[in-house]
Specification:
Layout (H helix, E strand, L loop, with lengths): L1 E6 L1 H5 L12 E2 L2 E2 H4 L2 H6 L1 H15 L6 H12 L1 E6 L5 H4 L5 E3 L2 E8 L5 E3 L18 E5 L9 H10 L2 E5 L11 H7 L4 E5 L11 E4 L2 H12 L3
Helix pairs in contact: 5-9
């Protein structure tokens, strides 16, 4: 069975990472517009770097949970395409070898001048030179609001070829990811949502499993059996 899985902030929340946007509209006490847009980086690169430096430090303190590990197990028994909106590396640390990070990776750096990418140090700052071109144009390799998500061609192909689509811990508010279930459903692909509560696009799913990801995901994976 070919399975496409999309994960969002809810799968990592149980590991201790804050969800992207809290009920008050803030992300770790910052307005999203101040830390997650190209304009914010141009306006105050020091603030943006400090913010992501803190996120990397926090990421180093947490561990993958049973939901991350269950998806790694799923890849051993089925043809899995694992897509995540998350910028953390908990899927990889949980055993997943091939993860599509459509919104970039906290552990990667990007040169805004030449496009070179490299492993991010724990602490980054605006004056850091690019190891390829030398420009002081280092930024987090994160897809900010107003920028195009990564790997979309590969993602759409996976959705076209899937026998089952699942969304885990997603809000259903951020596009294009929020449209994946609708796209799959139109092609007759069964869609299941695993979440703490119904998402904003809950109508696009034929089945819903409510509960914490660390419990629902291992149970769901176990129920799929082997190919």
């Amino acid at each position: 069975m070919r399975i496409a899985v999309l994960t969002g902030a809810g799968i990592s929340a149980e590991s201790g990472l804050a969800t992207f946007r809290a009920a008050d509209g803030l992300w770790e006490n910052h307005r999203v517009e101040d830390v997650a847009t190209p304009e914010a980086f141009e306006r105050d690169p020091d603030l943006v770097h400090r913010f992501y430096n803190q996120r990397r430090a926090r990421l180093a303190e947490v561990q993958p949970n049973p939901a991350h590990r269950a998806l790694a197990d799923l890849a051993q028994s089925h043809d899995l395409t694992l897509i995540t909106q998350n910028v953390d590396n908990l899927h990889e640390r949980g055993g997943s070898a091939d993860v599509i990070h459509m919104h970039g990776e906290l552990t990667r750096a990007l040169c805004a001048a030449c496009g070179h990418r490299w492993p991010a140090p724990l602490v980054m700052q605006p004056a850091d030179p690019c190891p390829s071109c030398g420009a002081a144009a280092t930024r987090p390799d994160i897809v900010w609001f107003g920028e195009m998500p990564y790997h979309m061609e590969r993602i759409w192909q996976a959705l076209e070829e899937a026998d089952l689509f699942a969304a885990i811990g997603t809000s259903g508010n951020v596009y294009p990811a929020a449209g994946f279930a609708q796209h799959a459903a139109r092609r007759g692909i069964p869609c299941v949502e695993l979440n703490l509560a119904a998402s904003a696009n809950a109508r696009d799913f034929a089945k819903r499993i409510i509960g914490p990801a660390s419990e629902t995901v291992p149970n769901w994976v176990a129920g799929l059996g082997r190919r």
